[in-house]
Write a structure and sequence with these properties.
- The chain has eight helices and four strands, in the order ααβαααβαβαβα.
- By secondary structure, it is an alpha+beta fold.
- It has one domain: NADH Oxidase (3-Layer(aba) Sandwich).
- α2 crosses α6 and α3 runs antiparallel to α7.
- The chain is globular.
- The protein starts with a helix and ends in a 6-residue tail after the last helix.
- The model has no long low-confidence stretch (mean pLDDT 97).
């Protein structure tokens, strides 16, 4: 697979084949490859927790319990803008309506929306859940580096026929997540990720979001 194919073909998979396991050796190989991602002064600020089997189920059970109880939780850091404005709110709404439209869910149907949203906290059926943490004393530059590491995981996974879905949703229950992980208080949850083989013929996996054309976000200066 060409690098360009790995990038342009990547998408957030939201239905995985729960019956196809991913070996520990393969997960380690993907993380080893991704570990070559750049970081300022090569400090490599990432720390990864790999959840499978009963460990993953404990995480799912703990967070699903909070979700179905109506506990929306709260981010420990501001992932999204505090005040939404155009063009960002428009892009967000288009994505949301497109996703629910494909599933045949009316966003006004609270019960149906909740039934779908809970799958976030089940890793969309993936056999592997990844949780990413960072030391609290790291600064913004290290968070930028972390993004390159996470994308490297998503691209390296595709070489092996695996797909992913990066998930900020877990951060709303960061206290629960960190407790289940047994992570030190000096660490902070960055996000989670579902990893596995995509479920064949799942309609949701056909969903593709739009991308801006180059001229919409690029300024060429040649004089």
């Amino acid at each position: 697979m060409k690098v360009s194919e790995a990038i342009t073909g990547r998408q957030s998979i939201r239905a995985f084949d729960a019956n196809r396991e991913v070996s520990k050796a393969l997960i380690a190989e993907i993380l080893t490859t991704a570990g070559r991602a750049p970081s300022g002064s090569n400090i490599q600020p990432w720390q990864v927790y790999v959840l499978t089997g009963s460990a993953k189920q404990r995480m799912v059970d703990a967070c699903v319990k909070r979700f179905v109880a109506g506990d929306e939780g709260a981010y420990e850091y501001a992932y999204y803008p505090k005040a939404w404005r155009q063009p960002y709110i428009g892009r967000r709404r288009k994505t949301g309506f497109g996703l629910y439209g494909l599933l045949g869910i009316d966003k006004a149907d609270a019960e149906a929306v909740q039934a779908y949203r809970v799958t976030n906290y089940q890793f969309f059926g993936a056999p592997v859940g990844l949780m990413f943490t960072i030391d609290r004393d790291m600064e913004l530059g290290s968070w930028l580096d972390y993004g390159m590491f996470i994308q490297s995981i998503m691209l390296a996974a595709r070489e092996h026929g695996l797909e992913t879905c990066p998930q900020a949703a877990w951060c709303t229950y960061h206290e629960t997540v960190m407790s289940v992980l047994g992570a030190d208080a000096s660490q902070m949850l960055v996000c989670g990720m579902a990893l596995g083989y995509p479920a064949a013929d799942a309609a949701i996996n056909s969903y593709r979001t739009d991308r801006l054309v180059v001229d919409e976000f690029t300024t060429f200066l040649d004089e």
